Amino acid sequence: AHTGEHGKRAAMEQQQHDPSAAEALPDHQHEQSQPQQPHTPVVRRRARAPPLPDYDQRNWLMFHCFVTGNLRMCEAVAAHQITASHGTCSYAFYIMGLVFRRQGMMKKSLDAFQRSLKLSPHNADCAKQVARCLVLQARHKTAVKLYAELAERGMRDWDVLHNYGVCLAHLGDRDAAKTMLAQALQAKKSELTYLFLSKLLAEEKNYEKVCSLLHEAIAALPENPNLLTAYGLALLQNGQPRKAFEQFGTALSYDARHTEAILAAGAIIQECNDHDVALVKYRVNAALTPESAEAWSNIGMCFFGKGKLLAAIACLKRASSLAPFESTIAYNLALVHLHTKQYASAFHFSSAAVNLNPQSSEAHQLLAITLHKLNDIDGAMHHFAAASELRSHDAPELYLNRAVAFLKQGLNQQAAKELTQYDRCNTRTVELDSFAQTLATAVHVG
Question: Are 109 and 95 in contact (CB under 8 A)?
């Protein structure tokens, strides 16, 4: 122990005479020889974000002007930003595309969105807007390619899937379109997707699936008057007028000014021959949408049911001026003129109805009756035959009209055959049965 203390003392004396000897000491001894400094914590501060370029500092102003509807100011600010940035401000081009599309300038809108996408190639919103412009320009093939590319990149949100399905439907690929629309519904329960998919199914005359789909839609969106009205129309086409009327009533309870529901409810009331109540409904509809050809056509037929033929013709003429290529209106005009014994006018409108809808059995039948009134027997029999070929269900009135035509020509045997066909129909009414008995008596007497 004494030797150790003596060694330490000798080393300290050597360090005083020779400073280089301190380097030979152990590290811990050297540290103990230095005075202790107080420990100060190191505070790390976040580096400030680099300032936005001058042309990006007004993005908020462009957005504010657009959402508040000040399109002129928005366009001016965006144009200034594009000039100041020498064409490198992506958001300014994006806003310009929205403004141009709102103004109906689709080509300029597409160009602006494409330039924005070129500056920001990974911006999904820009790509969606480009595809949307292509859809609005009816360039569905190009839009389908872009939507397919977005879907492959994992952007399978509702916007992409819905519009992808719409484009496929326009291109005729209905199965793929229905698949995409079903996937869009899984992503989001949307009114637009439900209505478009139900329209595709209705075009296939698959009304049971339409009713099932819209029932599901109403369960998801129970207070949507558009879906309730569409469901009512599907039920009406499926032969359930009572349930359809309930749906129209529910739709009107949520939106008393829903014109489509008012028109459909009025049509059901009109079918029940309650023309006065139906006219009250149509009056409300005409006040809300005075340019509705369907409403004026139904109003005209209400007056026809009440025996006011001149008022019926006036309303139907107005409907025809609003929708000159609507075959139903031409058919109604022909029917009313036939009752007023204006056979030339009836021929004009019935032939127009046949030309507008050549697959309509009712239009051919009405034209045949008109030609028979004009003593064109051959033409009448030709259109009676066409009506018989085109009918898709029991048509008891067709057999009675053909029996009348044969009877007036003195062909009692052919008239008797038509009456036999009439007896086999399942959709006869009391009025038709009474008329058929009158014809049968005339056939046997003849």
Answer: no
Question: Are 427 and 404 contacting, i.e. CB atoms less than 8 angstroms apart?
Answer: no
Using a 10 angstrom Cβ sphere, with 0-12 exposed, 13-18 middle and 19 or more buried, the burial of residue 289 is middle
Query: 292 — alpha (psi -120 to 50), left (phi > 0) or beta?
Result: beta
Tell me the C-alpha distance between 223 and 213, whole Å. Answer: 16
∠ CA 13-16-21 to the nearest 5 degrees? 90
Could you list the beta-strand ranges (E) of 35-175. none
Confidence of residue 59 (pLDDT cuts 50, 70, 90): confident
Least confident of 212-216, 283-287, 410-414: 410-414
Count other Cβ atoms within 10 Å, centred on residue 72: 10
CA angle 242, 395, 336 (to 5 degrees): 80
Residue 38 gets which letter from DSSP?
P
Residue 197 and residue 162 in contact, taking contact as beta carbons nearer than 8 Å: no
Note the pLDDT tens digit of each residue in 239-277. Answer: 899 999 999 999 999 999 999 999 999 999 999 989 999
Task: For residue 221, give the DSSP letter.
Answer: S
Mean pLDDT, the chain, integer: 85
pLDDT digits over 195-215, tens only? 999 999 999 888 999 999 999
Query: What does each C-alpha distance from 95 to 59, 106, 121, 150 come to in angstroms?
Result: 9, 14, 16, 21
What does the alpha-carbon distance between residue 200 and residue 268 come to, in Å, rounded to a whole number? Answer: 24
Could you read off the pLDDT of 328-360 as tens digits, one per residue? Answer: 999 999 999 999 999 999 999 999 999 999 999
C-alpha pair distances (Å), 26 with each of 15, 29, 32, 205:
13, 5, 10, 98
Name which of 288, 279, 261, 360 is nearest 315 in CA terms. 279
Question: How is 392-444 classified by DSSP, letter by letter?
Answer: -S--HHHHHHHHHHHHHTT-HHHHHHHHHHHHT-S---HHHHHHHHHHHHHHH
Pick from 249, 253, 245: which is nearest to 270 by CA?
245
- DSSP, residue by residue, 382-405: HHHHHHHHH--S--HHHHHHHHHH
pLDDT of 80 > 70? The answer is yes
CA-CA distance, 328 to 324, in Å (whole number)?
A: 10
Alpha-carbon span 111 to 105, nearest angstrom: 10
pTM confidence score? 0.75
Q: How far apart are CA 150 and CA 217, in angstroms?
A: 27
